Amino acid sequence: xxxxxxxxxxxxxxxxxxxxxxxxxxxxxxxxxxxxxxxxxxxxxxxxxxxxxxxxxxxxxxxxxxxxxxxxxxxxxxxxxxxxxxxxxxxxxxxxxxxxxxxxxxxxxxxxxxxxxxxxxxxxxxxxxxxxxxxxxxxxxxxxxxxxxxxxxxxxxxxxxxxxxxxxxxxxxxxxxxxxxxxxxxxxxxxxxxxxxxxxxxxxxxxxxxxxxxxxxxxxxxxxxxxxxxxxxxxxx
Length: 237
Fold this sequence. Notes:
The protein is α/β, with parallel strands linked by helices. The protein is 41% helix and 16% strand. It has helices at residues 18-24, 29-50, 69-89, 108-120, 137-153, 164-169, 217-228; strands at 10-14, 54-61, 95-100, 127-135, 181-185, 203-207. A six-stranded parallel beta sheet has the order 3-4-2-1-5-6, sandwiched between helices. Helix 4 links the parallel strand 3 (95-100) and strand 4 (127-135). Helix 1 (18-24) packs across helix 2, helix 2 packs parallel to helix 3 (69-89) and helix 3 runs parallel beside helix 4. It is globular, with a radius of gyration of 18 Å. The protein starts with 9 loop residues before the first strand and ends in a 9-residue tail after the last helix.
């Protein structure tokens, strides 16, 4: 008797390989980022269609600022253009969009669009889409610790009240289930500072035969099948 397929509730994706995709085709790196952004919309819609509750995508890390300024500036323009398109394309989709990370570092025009995107989708009841921008797992945990320390200093909390549940409530993903499955295409085998606290018991699927712009719904289904076949013991036997 075949094992029943288990659908993950929360999927995280490290959208990796855009630059290499462009280089293989003799194109500028930004062409890879544009192709990756286009594919992201396809995968997001598909996740919503098959019943995934939460999708978190790694779009721009705290370390990505170290890239050449020309590429960073081009990425900011791409993010802005994407959000304009998303406001139009996702208007009829039952998808709630949230941004996790320190968006205060972005241009005020981009910040305004981020806030508008979140506000207009706030009442949606389908897929929750977390877009991680200027996000880093370590920075997220430091922000959470500072919030808890401030409450302790003001007498709103005591040290013995600090536990995993409290700490989780101060993260960007507060109130959401931890990711069941994290997918990374492109052949890199690192977490790259993505959802460090939340992924303590996530199943990772590293796919070395595909770059993100070429990642298809069939590849997503393949990763879900791998996840479904695993025995998640959470430290038990």
